[in-house]
Here is the input.
Amino acid sequence: MKILIVYYSRHNHTKIVGDLIGKLLKGVVEEIIDIKDRSHLINWEKSVFDEELRTPTKIKPMKSNPKDFDLVIVGSPIWHGITPALRAYLKQNKGKFRKIALFTTFSASAENADYVVEKLSGKKPISVLGVQDRQIWMGEHKRLIREFCERVKKLLNIY
Ligand SMILES: Cc1cc2nc3c(=O)[nH]c(=O)nc-3n(C[C@H](O)[C@H](O)[C@H](O)COP(=O)(O)O)c2cc1C
Here is the structure.
């Protein structure tokens, strides 16, 4: 059973979650790199507007092809939606996903990220994980991630 974990992360919260999922599920992990510089605080508002206005962004070419995997688990911070980078990835790869699952990180609310991912990828996520920043800071994320991975394993009949 081949699993790919693909995530976008600006401040590492999503990376922490994605890397642990990758370790627990023995998957291939790949980070989405947004070509647009979003590193400075001044870009915060611009990034929110990009997501809200659905302004397309360009991402670096990825090494892995989702077609080669039984399940692709995508991850993104919530920016009043998902992120332009994950949006770009899903659009580029629509029709190539056999199964999809989702994880998000956020400070307040995961909003309707699962609905957005279903629309963009063409697949309803088989499982969804939302992790709040403060849960990562308190170390509570590890239990949530373990439970998510157990759910995924059950759904894929991996023992
Ligand atoms: C541009 C921007 C917009 C954000 N918008 C939201 C939001 O609408 N709702 C929310 O709960 N958190 C929001 N956040 C917080 C992030 O979702 C949260 O800190 C997340 O864990 C960041 O992930 P990262 O460290 O992998 O980049 C926003 C953060 C940024 C930088």
Observations:
- The helical segments are 13-25, 43-52, 84-93, 113-121, 133-137, 141-155.
